[in-house]
Structure formats: C-alpha cells, structure tokens
Amino acid sequence: MGLILIVLEGSLDLRLTRDKGPVVRRSFLAAAAILVAASTAIAALLHFYTGAGWQSCLANAVALSVVSSAVAIPSVAGLTAEKKEFIIYESTFSDILGIMLFNFALQDNFAQGVSLVTFGADILAVLAVAVLSTAALAFLLARLRGHIKFFLLFAFLVLMYSLAKQLHLSSLVLVLVFGLAVNNADLFLRGRRLQSWLHPNELVSELGQLKSLTAESAFLVRTFFFLAFGFSINLSNLLNGHLLWQGLLVVAVLTFVRYLYLRFVAGTDLVPELFIAPKGLISVLLFYSIPAPLLIGEVSETLMFLVILLTGVLMMVGLQLVPKGVPLEGEV
To answer: Does 98 score more than 70 pLDDT?
Structure first.
C-alpha cells in the first residue's frame, strides 16, 4: 500500500503539456542516468567490500540510490519555478524508475540476456493491462454517485495491482499509467465516443479531491512506517566508527555520480540541484522488500538510517547555499 500510494501521489503531480516537454525530458534523462550510474557504482562498491553476488549488491544498491520524492518535493517549495519543476519531475521519475530497476534486479534470470527480453515483454504487457484498467477506473469514477467513491476506486486499483503481481508483471507501472491518465484526462480522452463513455469533464472535477485524499493517505502511511522504522534502529550503532564510515562512503559515491552528470552531461546549475537527492520512505520500503537470500549483512537498517540522515543534512546545506538575491516562488 505504501508503494502504491507513493507512485500514485507522484504520478498525479505529473502534468504532460507541450510547454513542459523540455523539463520533463531533461528530468527523466537525469533521473534515469543518475539512478543507473549510482546503483552500478554502489553495487560495485558492495561487491568489492563484501564479496556478495552481483544480484544481491544491485538490489541493495537500488534501495540506497533512489531519490525520495516524498522528501524532495516539499523541501523545494521556495525555489524558483524552473528549479522546482526539475526537482519535482526528477525525484518522481527516480521513485518510479527505481522501483522498476529493483524489480528487474529481483528476476530469477538476472544477468542473463533473456532477462532484458522478459523484462521488456512484462512492461509491454503491464502497459496493456494499465490502459484497460485505467479506462475501467475512469468509467467507475465518472459514474459513482455515492459519498464513498475514492476508497472504492483505491480498492479496485489494489485489485488490479494484485492481479498484475500474480502474473509477475511490473504492477506499479499500472499505478503510474492510471495516475498520469487521470491527471491528463483532457489529453488522452479525446473523441466523442470516448468522452461519452468516460466523461473526462466529471473526472477532472473530481481530481482535486482524489489528489487530496491520496496525499493524506500517503502522509499517514509514511508517518507510521517511519515510526516503525525508528523502533528498529539501535542508536548505539550510530557511534560505530566503521558503520559511520560506510554511510559517508555511500553518500560520497552517490554525490560524486550526481556531480558528474549535472556538471558534464546536463550542464545545469549545481546549487542546489547537486545536494537535493534525499533518501526516504521509498528506500526503506525497497530495503524491506529484498528477499532474505539477497540480503547483505553489512547493509543494515542502521546503515540505511545513516544514508537517509546524511542525505537530508546535505539537502539542508544545499538549500542554504541558494543565493539570497534569487527571488523565491511567489515573490514580486
């Protein structure tokens, strides 16, 4: 439920308009390239450091590399519109792509040539399921007249997610496509026949309530999940110099990879973009989703907590480095 709500909340914030095309492409490429490069670098570090298999190292590395949109998006509310949009889209794409890369790393035929083929086929299959289920959900949402409608919609969405999971498909892509389709109904639902069946105008009128309820539910899940995560942390381990060194090394590798892409590939500003790559609930959820045979003893809850804490501090420092003369969003 946490993963579903996180992806749904993120996808409901993605507006696909022509004027946003450049920032969407730029942020998508940044999220994909940085995620793949950082996950590979951390996996190589874990393999060298622990001697664990590449599949275990990659699964753990993805959990450590994915950027948390739930932490990044509220933190950049005061930045200029251009910087804020880039970080919102990049962190959202990082969440979604990170989950997909994590699912790829868990495949039984991982690191074989056929794994890419099967993974690609799964994506195409789940896209087909996503289109059909999104149409059905939109049909229901436009016609439900009772006061209780959004939790019925969530129940149907969870049902479709579970069915896709049983078919070993990347079921979170279904959630992503649904969120994108609902938030961009006026773009997708064109033509008299589609509009007469799915009523996009009524769908748009309900969108604000759906976003609000999704955000509230995601906040509730995040709160209790972090509470449970806090109970699992032994604070005495934070005084362990060896563990602290591991956390610093992981954060240094992640920051270096991000610096290389932003400086030499994207050619964008480094302040505060370089520093805003926090880890959060998505990392914790992926970490707890790693099957027992793929767990690495050195990658513990405490190390995950250190990485979350250090990247949060780094983000705070980056936001303080924003020149004071730069106007904030909403200022005249």
So the answer is: yes
Question: What mean pLDDT do residues 278-297 have?
Answer: 88
Question: Taking 70 as the threshold, does the pLDDT of residue 105 lie above it?
Answer: yes
At 50, list the tokens: 């622990």
Which has the minimum average pLDDT: 43-47, 209-213, 315-319? 209-213
Tokens of 285: 């959820």
Q: What is the pLDDT of residue 151?
A: 80
Give this prediction's pTM: 0.81
| CA–CA dist 97, 39 (Å, integer) | 12
